[in-house]
Amino acid sequence: MNLSVRLVGFTALAAALATACAPQTSGTSSSAKDDKSGTLRVWLFQEVDNRPKQQVVDAVLAGFEKAHQDTEVSVEYIPVETRAQRIKAAFNDPKSAPDVIEYGNTDTAGYVRDGGLLDVTREFDAWSEAADTDPTARRSVTVDGRVYGAPYFVGVRALYYRTDVFEELGLAVPTSRAELISTAKRIRAAKPHLYGLAVGGAYTYGALPFLWADGGELAIGEEGSYASALDSPAARKGIKAYTSLFGDDNCPAAKCAGMNGNDTVTAFASGKAAMAIGGDFSHAAVEAGKVRGKYAVVPLPGVKPGSIAPAFAGGNNIGVLKSTSHRTLAVDLMKRLASKKTQGELFDAMGFLPTFTDVRRQAAAKEPFVKPFVDTLAAGTRFVPASPAWAQIDSSLVLPTMFQEIVSGKKDVAAASEDAARKMNDAFGAAG
Amino acid sequence: MSRVTAPSGPNAAERRRVRVARGPSRPHGGSRASHPAPRPSAGWTPWLYLAPALLVLGGLLVYPVYQLGLISVLEYTQAQVSGGRPTSFRGLDNYTELFSDDQFWQVLLATVGFAAACVVSTLAVGCALAVLLTRVRALPRLALMLAALGAWATPAITGSTVWLFLFDPDFGPVNRLLGLGDHSWTYGRYSAFLLVLLEVVWCSFPFVMVTVYAGIRAVPSEVLEAAALDGASHWRIWRSVLAPMLRPILVVVTVQSVIWDFKVFTQIYVMTGGGGIAGQNLVLNVYAYQKAFASSQYSLGSAIGVVMLLILLAVTLGYLRLLRRQGEEL
Questions:
Q1: Number of domains in chain A
Q2: Cα–Cα separations (whole angstroms), residue A390 to A114, B76, B107
Q3: Where is the region Disordered (chain B) (predicted)?
Q4: Distance from CA of A209 to the nearest CA of B (A)
Q5: Which residues of B touch A395 (CB under 8 A)?
Q6: Which residue among A182, B38, B53, B74 is least packed, with the fewest CB closer than 10 Å?
Q7: Do both A164 and A175 map to the same domain?
Q8: Residues A252 and A353 occupy one common structural domain
């Protein structure tokens, strides 16, 4: 009897074991070694169609190996979905970590706090090409005034719309936010099987331009002392405008509350939406969909007629890991991978927008489809708070939860934004 | 990964228990002198026999639980793991933070309610079908068995995905059959929980059904005949004859279901997209995962794990004690 009680007890124990892992800590200091030969390991993101990227990268590596005697570079393309785990694992185990990585620019501050990235301020400032880096891109590699990598490309979102639907209904392309919303509702009323403007409750970076257009901010303050501004009147106005798009007259909450950015682009590409907020990086997916040849792109309109809503400057950076034992070589490789020449080639191959203003201008002249995106960038872009807390705010879904609470009618704008602001401040406070 | 593989351990252990528990209830006809001889000086011999099992249990259970408890009193996030910040001792601060969080209490309440509904539904469906199995002919019995085993053998993630597709607002056959148009099942809180409950019952009733069916088969037919001759209805036979005789088995399947349904993860995670609209369908296990792994607050996630462990231990031990007081031999 006694034994059986214990046995069942142990069973319960086994069952509840959910999150066990050893509290170990890897070394904090950067490697003292700076080998001038050997093998360098690079992790880059695996794109949907990776071959053109690989060709560009291979050319860079050939040049690098030629310039440095007895060096070899091995590249691994890691899947985007599991990058967080892979990069965390690399920080935890410096021995099997790569020397150079590609990373999402919203992760910069978090990775720096994790002690993963090498401070390359001196090398970056001494780099002749760095002067042409656009300021927002530069901000995305900067934490507390120090530079932790080189911008690789920028990603920015604009308004995709169906030219055939607009023509059929005799609609003009919206030039202000009020027009955008009324146009979306008119389309939905005329064509109930289409979403007017596809929006998503979990589409943070599609919603932020609405908030910024009203002069709202995610957070105010400086690095190290942020305070959330989500519950300010300006931000609330933007939140209200975005959430007004959820409803049977545009994008029913029952379907759209759970959608993320990819879902809205998929809805547009498959012909289920008349408009969507998509990135330059979504171009390939839309081209591959049903609406090929029946759409155009314009910058997302702001509040004032003719203005452009500030967009989120997404994109990726190339950084060197603190644990590298080839510091000099790794920094040189970083510069080569993110150079003007490489970024120009990468644009030709993949359509990724260059982070250098002059290279971007040349690119726009070559490819008309990037014009609305370049215009959006030129009109000024915004970035998320450069705080390690942002990674946590993002991953604990603070903003999607706020939008979903509002569109599902659980809370009003004031209450939901107040709760979200409190959660953000908790995260900022914990990050110090 | 321990979360996914853990159930197979308990299941195996409990299935073994079922066999042991059923032993005495079977009339052996005669020799009752099966009591072992008194062992006044067993010494270290039993420990020698137990050593391999204890070693495995120690390595696979005690050590991880110790680590879980340890992490839950530290400040331990990604920055501490990769060495960006020193690990520091926080005492019970993680627990204070957890208990002062409204969301934790909401999630706990939802988990208890959801698990209770799942346990009751699973046992009801499992027992009803087990009784049905004893009353139908060979062919339908075989068909029902195969259908149940199919559901049992389906991996949780596959089952969840298929159920989600069945109830999909745009392409799902269920909405088309019921003429619901593009009704979204995962949008409302209760309808999403209901959908997940159906899937959980579907994939966990076979264990109850097969176990109870085996138990019913072992009940001597004279007893059932006697009850039938006395004019007892089916329901009366179940309540007054079968259920009491099957009590040890029912205890095991109940405890197993409680543990299983309390820590349901895959179904919620897959079917509600990680916790539903604005986190309305979070249960403790998914909540712990979101805290520990999605936002890298390992120590907070561990604290949730410890709370879950204590709740499950308390429920299980409390239930067993209650039975013991009623004089039931497990």
A1: 2
A2: 13, 18, 24
A3: 1-39
A4: 21
A5: 294-296
A6: B38
A7: yes
A8: no
CA dihedral A192, A275, A211, A208 (to 10 degrees): 120
- What pLDDT was estimated at residue B79? 80
pLDDT digits (tens, 9 = 90+) for A377-415: 988 888 888 888 888 888 888 999 999 999 999 999 999
Subunit contact A12:B312, Cβ cutoff 8 A: yes
Residue B2 covered by a domain: no
pLDDT given for residue A9 in this prediction: 45
Chain A contact present for B304, CB below 8 A: yes
pLDDT of B4 higher than 60: no
Taking residues B132-138, what's their average pLDDT? 91
Q: Is residue A1 part of a domain?
A: no
On average, the pLDDT of chain B sits at 84
Is A401 inside a domain boundary? yes
The shortest C-alpha distance from B230 to chain A (Å) reads: 36
Q: Residue B323 has what pLDDT?
A: 74
Give the span between the Cα atoms of B76 and B86, in whole angstroms: 9
The reply to whether A286 and A402 lie within a common domain is yes
Q: What is the mean pLDDT of residues A282-290?
A: 87
Structure-model confidence comparison of residues B37 and A91, the more confident one: A91
Domain annotation covers residue A11:
no
Q: Is residue B153 part of a domain?
A: yes
The DSSP call for residue B61 is I
Q: Are residues A255 and A318 in the same domain?
A: no
Contact B263 A18 (CB under 8 A): yes
Averaged pLDDT score across all residues of chain A? 88
Instruction: Judge whether B66 and A17 are in contact, CB under 8 Å.
Output: no
Give the ranges where A94-232 is alpha helix by DSSP (H). 108-113, 121-126, 135-139, 163-169, 177-190, 204-213
Give the pLDDT confidence score for residue A159 in this predicted structure. Answer: 96
Residue A247 and residue A102 share a domain: no
B237 domain-assigned: yes
CATH number at residue A89: 3.40.190.10
Give me the DSSP letters along B125-176. HHHHHHHHHHHS-HHHHHHHHHHHHHHHHS-HHHHHHHHHHHT-TTT-HHHH
Residue A4: inside a domain: no
A 10 A CB-CB count for B260 gives: 23
CA–CA separation, B121 and B198 (whole Å): 9
Query: In this complex, which of B79, B263, B288 lies closest to A114 when CB atoms are compared?
Result: B79
Task: Kindly indicate the confidence band of residue A144, based on its pLDDT and cuts at 50, 70 and 90.
Answer: confident
Single-letter residue type at A48: V
Q: How far apart are CA A57 and CA A62, in angstroms?
A: 9
Look at chain B and report how many structural domains it folds into.
1
CB B117 within 8 A of CB B190: no
Q: Is residue B6 part of a domain?
A: no
Please report the pLDDT score of residue B25 as a whole number. Answer: 44
Same domain, A104 and A210: no
pLDDT for residue B83: 74
Percent residues over pLDDT 70 in chain B: 86
Q: Which of A14, A28, A91 sits opposite B10 (nearest CB)?
A: A14
Q: Residue B295's domain is classified under what CATH number?
A: 1.10.3720.10
By Cβ distance, the residue of B70, B296, B309 closest to A23 is B70
Residue span of the structural domain in which A166 resides? 157-309+397-431
Asked whether residue A59 falls in the same domain as residue A129, the answer is: yes
Model confidence over B29-48: pLDDT tens digits? 444 444 555 555 668 889 99
In angstroms, the separation between the Cα of residue A54 and the nearest Cα of chain B is 30
Asked if residue B86 has pLDDT above 90, the reply is: no
Q: Give the tens place of pLDDT for each residue, A151-206.
A: 999 999 999 999 999 999 999 999 999 999 999 999 999 999 999 999 999 999 99
pLDDT score of A274 more than 50: yes
Contact A201/B277, CB-based, under 8 Å?
yes
One domain for residues A161 and A208: yes
Among A2, A10, A17, A423, most B C-beta atoms within 10 A, so best to mutate, is A17
For residue B167, the enclosing domain spans 74-325
What phi-psi label fits residue A115: left (phi over 0), alpha (psi between -120 and 50 degrees) or beta?
Answer: left
